[in-house]
Structures are given as C-alpha cells and as structure tokens.
Write a structure and sequence with these properties.
- It is a single chain.
- The protein is α+β, with helices and mostly antiparallel strands.
- It contains 13 helices and 21 strands.
- It has 2 domains: 267 residues, no CATH class; 143 residues, no CATH class.
- Strands 1, 4, 5, 6, 8, 9, 10, 11 and 12 form a 9-stranded mixed beta sheet that branches. The chain has a 6-stranded antiparallel beta sheet with strand order 15-17-16-19-14-18, with helices on both faces. The chain has a two-stranded antiparallel sheet with strand order 2-3.
- A hairpin with a 5-residue loop joins strand 9 and strand 10.
- It is globular and about 65 Å long.
- The termini are close together.
C-alpha cells in the first residue's frame, strides 16, 4: 500500500516565475561539466548551485560543494527568492514534447507529492535498475547538508480507469503558477492544489497501488539511507515524521504521454579488436545481416538503422552493431534457443532483455570484457539518441556502438514485480523531469498530514 501525502512545497518566488526557464535544470546525473558551467552563467539563482555545485581547490569538511549548497538554500529562503507554501499542497504538472519519428507532440501528466519510504523488498515501491555506491554517497552528503529533496524521484503507477488524471480537470481551470518552454523545446506547466478532497482521492487510489521507480533509483535509496540516519537521531516514532517521506513525481503507466527511449552503448576502446574474428565468433549466437549505409546524411543513416531495428525487434532480440570506419552496420538477430546459454544466474524475465543479450554474448563472450569492466564509465558511455551515437563513432570519439530497441513498459513492470533489477541504463524515460519546480524541506520535528484512505 503506497502512502501518498501533500506537503508544504518550496518554489521560486512568483516574481521569478517569468524567468523560470533560466532557473531550472535537468536531473544532476545527466548534466555534463560544460552544461554545469552554462547553468551557472544562466542565472545567479539557477538551481545548479543546489544540486551540482562546483568543486574548488581547498575544499574541506566545513567548506565544500555540499555546505555551499546548504548556504545558498538557506540564504535564498531568507531573502525571499524561495518561498514555502503555508498549507500542504499537491502539484499537478503537464509536460509537452516532440515524441520524434514524425509522431508529433505528446503531453505527459503527473503530480508531485510525498510518498512514504518503504523497506527494501516491500513490494510497495519497486526499483528496476542497479545502483552504484559512489552516486548514493554523493547524494547522501547533499541531503545531510541541506535537509531537503531538490529533485523528484520519477514513479509510475497503474490506473487503467485514469481516476487521478480525470480529477485533474477540476483543478487546472485556473492559470498555472508557471508555464514555460525549456531550452530543449519541452513545454512545462504546473498548478498548485490545496483541496482536501483531491488529497483524499489521490491517497485512496494510490493505497491500492505499487509504485515502480522509472528514474531516480540512487535518490530513492539515498532517501532511505537518510531516513535511517535521521531515525538514529530523532527516533522512528511518530511514523509520519517528515524524514519518513520522499518527494516523488507520479505518472500513470497508461498515460499516452509516457515514452521510453533505448540507451545505446558506446565503447571508446576494445584492446586487440578485430572485426572479422568478432563477427565470426558472434555468428554462433546470432544470425548477422549486413545493412549498407547510404553515406548521405547522418540523419538518413540513423533512420535506416532505427527502421531495421523496429522492423525486426518483435521477432527476437535484435542488436545493431556499428564499428568505426565501416560503411555498413551489422544487424544481429539472436538465434532460437540461445537465451538458455545466457547463464543459470538469470531469471527468465531478465533473459528477455536486449541489454543482457548484448552484455552476456557480445560484450563479455564476444569482446572479452569482464562484468566489472562493463561498469567502467571511462570506457562505456550511453546515449539515447541513435543519431548522436552514430555521429560520435563516425567522428572517432568511440571505437564502436551497439544500437538497441527500447525496453517496453510491460517488461519494466514484469522485472520489477519479480523483485529483480535490470543492468543500469536499461531504460530512458523521456523527457526527464526538470529540477527546480518545487523543493521539499525536511524538518525532523514536522509531521506530515496524511489524508484518510
């Protein structure tokens, strides 16, 4: 039973809402060093200073990126740049974006609220991807310094009757508190709802549900670690202390605006790589089809590869391989019965995943990488855009790329429901949720008002 509650969110002062597009950013873990600099220059109150502060020479235990984030957060509240709602609220959002491939615009609806943190294995909040300790340690340092959630965890729930979305209509007749277009072309709106009947509806619907984590696995595990730390200082009771909850963005799995993109794999270097011997070895597991690339525009070549993947992916696992300097890519169709050779350690649900077919056969057995080496962020990179991935190899930044089809939402649900986890970067829920729309301040002495359900 998921416990969902309104909260007294902190937002930018209304006087800043006209320039909110210059204050928000994508999640911290997709921001490059160059983009970090750009957001720093964008506005003196850009949220980058809270979520991804710059390191400085001479940083110490008492003066570092985390303590500086806490100082900004407190100062901005004191100076009225950030204001806290006087009453608990749920925040309704709409996100309109170009879905690509000629599909036109989609709109994804969601709500931002607090969700009670659950124990691992509870079957209430279900992760689906692996996490890494370095990311969690970084986020825990930030949470302990600032005592706040700056970014929402992206959660999914099932509601085929669309009860919550239908109820939105009653509360979006008024003008949103912000409406803007971000630099990537996505369009955002947000409304603030203070109505108890809406809180009760949301609580009642969500009490029947599990929540699947779409994005923000590190942040959720960090919130649980932070909660455990706070429990040692302030206790476990009452059960509704503020640190027992985490801020989440929740959207319906049935929302037509939900899009999952693939995460293509880029490899900088493969020691001793030989194309012919790699293809010969791969033919034991795959039927390989050569796809000639036109040599014309990059977008045309990318579209041809994408079309070939879409045409074949319903039959079996299909992976497109492109080595640097070649004039063709290689479409690899997994042979019948080969999933039985993926390893006894894998659950049948995981053996269906293209990312694990790629990992077990092509990356480990074909190219000789160990599982530990596959976690090397210096050598392995991920890109949701097939065009950008192809361009990166053609320009020589990478030695090769493997292109994948997106993981279906049904498969995400199947894996998470079995309490299993996928390799990291198995999914890319698009677009990401912007950081900076609303923050959750965690006061250990504050109790969260949970609606009846």
């Amino acid at each position: 039973m998921a416990i969902v509650a309104p909260f007294k969110g902190i937002t930018y002062n209304p006087i800043f809402m006209q320039e909110i597009s210059r204050l928000v950013t994508p999640p911290y873990d997709v921001i490059s060093p160059q983009e970090q600099d750009m957001y720093y220059q964008e506005h003196p109150h850009n949220v980058i200073r809270l979520i991804l502060g710059k390191k400085k020479l001479g940083d110490s235990d008492w003066d570092n990126r985390y303590t500086r984030a806490a100082e900004y957060f407190e100062r901005w509240q004191r100076d009225g740049i950030l204001v806290r709602d006087e009453e608990p609220a749920i925040y309704i959002t709409s996100l309109t974006y170009d879905a690509g491939n000629g599909l036109g615009e989609k709109t994804r609806w969601g709500l931002i609220a607090l969700v009670k943190i659950e124990e691992q294995g509870s079957k209430v909040i279900l992760p689906h991807e692996r996490t890494f300790s370095a990311h969690k340690e970084d986020r825990l340092k930030l949470m302990r310094a600032c005592n706040a959630n700056f970014s929402q965890i992206f959660g999914l729930y099932e509601d085929h009757q669309r009860r919550i979305i239908k109820a939105f209509k009653s509360y979006i007749k008024e003008s949103p508190i912000c409406s803007f277009e971000f630099r990537d072309g996505t369009k955002h709106r947000m409304w603030v709802v203070h109505e108890p009947e809406f809180f009760e509806l949301v609580a009642k619907v969500m009490a029947e549900k599990s929540i699947f984590i779409a994005d923000g696995h590190h942040r959720y595990e960090t919130a649980r670690n932070y909660r455990n730390f706070m429990r040692t200082r302030y206790g476990k009771k009452p059960w509704n202390r503020s640190y027992e909850f985490v801020m989440m963005y929740l959207t319906n799995m049935s929302d037509p605006g939900l899009t999952i993109l693939p995460s293509h794999r880029l490899i900088k270097r493969v020691p001793g790589f030989n194309l012919n011997s790699f293809l010969e070895k791969s033919r034991f597991w795959f039927q390989i089809e050569e796809v000639k690339l036109s040599g014309n525009s990059l977008s045309e070549e990318a579209q041809k590869i994408r079309s070939e993947l879409q045409r074949n992916s319903h039959k079996t696992s299909v992976i497109a391989f492109y080595p640097q300097g070649d004039h063709q890519c290689y479409l690899m169709h997994l042979k019948e019965g080969m999933r039985d050779h993926m390893g006894e350690d894998l659950h049948p649900s995981l053996k269906k995943l293209d990312v694990l077919v790629l990992s077990r056969f092509l990356l480990q057995k074909g190219l000789g990488f160990s599982r530990e080496e596959l976690d090397d962020d210096e050598n392995f990179h991920y890109q949701s855009s097939l065009t950008k991935a192809l361009e990166a190899v053609k320009e020589g930044a990478y030695e090769m790329a493997f292109f994948l089809s997106p993981t279906s939402i049904e498969h995400v649900k199947e894996v998470a429901s079995n309490l299993l986890v996928m390799p990291r970067k198995s999914t890319f829920f698009y677009p990401k949720i912007l950081t900076g729309l609303v923050f959750n301040k965690i006061d250990p002495h504050e109790l969260i008002e949970v609606p009846p359900h």
